[in-house]
Amino acid sequence: MLLCDFIWEHRDQVLDRARSRVSTGETPVVTEPEPTTGLPLFVEQLCVALHRATPLQAPDHEAISDSAALHGHLLFDHGVTIEQVVREYGHLCQSITSLAVEKDAGIAAEDFRTLNLCLDDAIAAAVTEFGRQRERAINNEGTERLGVLAHEMRNLLNVAILSFASIRDGVVAPGGSTGAMHERSLLSLLALIDRSMAEVRLDAAMQNLEHVPAWKILREVEIGAALVARQRGLRFVVSCDDRSAIVEADRQILCAALANLVQNAMKFTHPAGTVLLRTRTTPTRVLLEVEDECGGLPPGHAETLLQPFTQRGTDRTGLGLGLSICVKAVRAIAGELRVIDMPGKGCVFTIDLPKQAPPSTPTI
Known about the structure:
The chain is of the alpha+beta class and 364 residues long. Helix content is 58%, strand content 13%. The protein has a five-stranded mixed β-sheet with strand order 2-4-5-7-6. A two-stranded antiparallel sheet has the order 1-3. Strand 4 and strand 5 form a beta hairpin. Helix 1 packs antiparallel against helix 3, helix 7 runs antiparallel to helix 8 and helix 8 runs parallel beside helix 9. The longest helix is centred in the middle third of the chain and has 60 residues.
């Protein structure tokens, strides 16, 4: 029996087996708009290619590649990996082979060689298209992020330039509200740059891990945060329960993450409210906590607050990326970021890190 006839006759069984293998593995199950895309179309093209192939005529490589490229595009849209793309074609090949053996179809070895050649074409085309789509998505994401960052920096710089011009020309006094606006713009610009630098270091895996006393992290964050608190008319309290507590971290990344939490707390705390920055320690963990007085979160928001592009409150400044960057930064140093909602009062954000052993004391 010709392999093309066997596959066409048992087309539904072949596809069901392939999908069954996919569903029991790590590959996400793809809901395909049959029969126009994905494996169904590839099986049709495969049958045509096998039917036309003779010892003197090779399979139609172009048709196979086109349908496989379409499949690779579809799989990318469903969030699978390149490994999973290759595995899916492997499942299809195994399904055809096992079914042929079970039914004792008597397929010629030459037909199986042609099948392998067609699958080789398909994998190459699918992986190539998958890679093309992935590269395009990365470029688009990078361009969008750069554009948003440049837009926000320009807004802050424009405010700083205009306020400085008014102060320089003597129109207003440095100690008035225009001076406060100028200071606020510069502080926001500094926070934006610090956060962006931390994100670049994370993406580039440029960590410089060291053992750092937790109180020193608080001290570095306190310097800039105290200015913001004063400018916003907030009470800012810093406390450390154990000055001997040590964490392992990239100092710049951890400071940027903690500073972002403090900035976020001050952004949403009610006027004349209090923001607390503190450490709590257990025998094995160091907890860096930021408590605000935002009034609490709407029901269900605590679960989504740490996701990218999530913003809360009426102040829509910022990219909505700060908290998700904090999650990424904390995970990079083997920690965890949590949020506890206190309805009617505020929120507590906690960076939970492993506690490190104190440095050994040299013997005298």
